[in-house]
Amino acid sequence: MSHEFTVFTEIKSGHADAMRDDLATLADASNDQRVHAALRQIGTLHDARHVIFDNDTRHMFASVFDGSWDAYIDDFAKTEVGDRFDKVFSHTEGFPGVKDPGVKDWFVAHQEPARVFVSSYPELTVQQIWKDQRVSEAFQEVLDTPEFRAALENPANAALMATPAFQKLLEEASA
Fold it and tell me: What are phi and psi of 111, to 5 degrees?
């Protein structure tokens, strides 16, 4: 089950531009294979976003994740993502560092739970979504082969192809 996490922080005086630069680097790194590997290692992050607002005085970090909040924070500290977190949050007042034993207390002190959190797929985990994507890609590859088209035309498969489940599968695949 997915959960939301939103933190509001005060940006250190004069640090907004440096934070923007670090966020730009973070955005560029989102295509970095090391970051993808770290996110796969964490395996629970659906999405995350950073916003600078109130005339460059405040920062919001919001994310959606699977599992427990404690494990989510712990997992970030173990990867390269944690180092990048430290870089961005170093521009905020009082951030102790993601590996600091007090970081969870700091996050809790700055967290503001959403009053409403809506998800189009609340029961799907990141792991399930990745698996669904792999299965879909593999199935699409099969659908595009001459062998599959030949199997569809083979009279020996007519009973299977007439089943509601197979028809639904073909309908979904063509959607």
Answer: -80, 145
Measured distance CA(70)–CA(2) in Å, rounded:
14
Alpha-carbon gap, residue 154 to 3, rounded angstroms: 48
Max alpha carbon distance in the chain (Å)? 75
* Cβ atoms of 5 and 69 closer than 8 Å: yes
Q: Mean pLDDT score of the chain, rounded to an integer?
A: 89
What's the predicted TM-score (pTM) here?
A: 0.80
Token digits for 148?
Answer: 């599959």
Could you give the 3-state DSSP secondary structure of residue 19?
A: helix
Q: Is the dihedral of CA 66, 79, 9, 70 positive or negative?
A: positive
Nearest CA to 110 among 126, 88, 132, 95? 95
pLDDT tens sequence across 74-87: 988 888 788 888 99
Q: Can you spell out the DSSP letters for 94-160?
A: T---TTSTTHHHHHHHHB---S----SSTT--HHHHHHHHHHHHHHHHHHTSHHHHHHHH-GGGHHH
Give per-residue pLDDT as tens, 146-168.
888 888 888 888 888 889 988 88
